[in-house]
Design a protein that fits this description.
globular; 10 helices; mainly alpha
Length: about 280
């Protein structure tokens, strides 16, 4: 799969699932953002469906060196990659129906479908293919944490509540929840990311001498920048928000959301690079 296709898949997951996460984190602010949430859900769902089809088609075309409709159909129904794409499309369609209803779906139902959707990525990942169940679990947890954090920050940054000063109690409560979620996600991302790096890299020199290592360095640099920004938000600007000041945190939230999207692009590049020992 090309980095562009992989990035589009990741972005679709963030838009679709992030809207649901925001509705649970900030139900008081969700009505003011309803149109944006609806558009995000639709765009995310369409991206996931179209890109899943394009992924399978691209893979078959690369294998054969030509377009073959019959073989594309066989590949879709008789390979793990193809069947997982079908499962993903079915789960996306289900989430679209549930998410576009006026009332949010039950948290347990949303969580179950979302984990299934994210699992369709991890089951064809480097980790699952080469290292079995523990690596698969770590990959699912890593992707889940990234999607939760990215989606929550993205929609929180788009909230119209930032235009009002002093900050409302609803905005303060939302940002406290986003900050706590972000801290938990960072810890989980650090643990699972370190585990994946130990699986895929046998020597430190591979960070600078292999395409996979260089892509990992790029991703780590972006993540490090985001962590500095998130620390600024949590320990300096969030207390200022509680004193009524909104503008600075609103601006840094938008920057954090943009940087998180670039991390997904870097992840798309990373996950399409050959492993050093493949």
């Amino acid at each position: 799969m090309t980095p562009l296709l992989k990035t589009a898949l990741y972005l679709g997951a963030v838009l679709l699932l992030g809207a649901g996460v925001f509705r649970y984190l900030g139900p008081e602010l969700a009505p003011a953002l309803a149109r944006t949430l609806r558009r995000g859900v639709i765009l995310g769902g369409l991206l996931l469906i179209v890109t899943s089809v394009a992924d399978v088609t691209w893979t078959v075309t690369q294998l054969l060196g030509r377009w073959d409709t019959a073989f594309i159909g066989e590949y879709t129904f008789y390979t793990r990659h193809g069947r997982l794409a079908l499962v993903r499309i079915a789960l996306v369609a289900t989430l679209l129906v549930l998410s576009l209803r006026p009332r949010a779906p039950r948290p347990w139902l949303f969580s179950l479908i979302s984990l299934g959707l994210l699992g369709t990525f991890s089951l064809v990942s480097h980790a699952a293919v080469m290292h079995g169940a523990p690596a698969l679990l770590a990959d699912i947890l890593h992707f889940t944490a990234a999607t939760l954090w990215g989606g929550a920050v993205l929609y929180a940054a788009l909230s119209p509540a930032w235009a009002h000063e002093p900050a409302s109690t609803d905005l303060i409560a939302l940002m406290a929840r986003v900050s706590s979620l972000g801290l938990g996600c960072v810890l989980l991302l650090t643990a699972t990311g370190a585990y994946a790096s130990l699986l895929h890299l046998s020597r430190p020199t591979e960070l600078t001498t292999t395409p996979y290592g260089l892509a990992l360095v790029l991703k780590l640099a972006l993540v490090g920048t985001i962590l500095l920004l998130a620390a600024l938000n949590r320990w300096w600007l969030l207390p200022a928000l509680k004193r009524g000041k909104t503008r600075r945190l609103g601006r840094t939230m938008k920057l954090e959301a943009l940087l998180l999207l670039t991390v997904f692009a870097a992840t798309g590049l990373l996950t399409t690079r050959p492993l050093p020992h493949s």
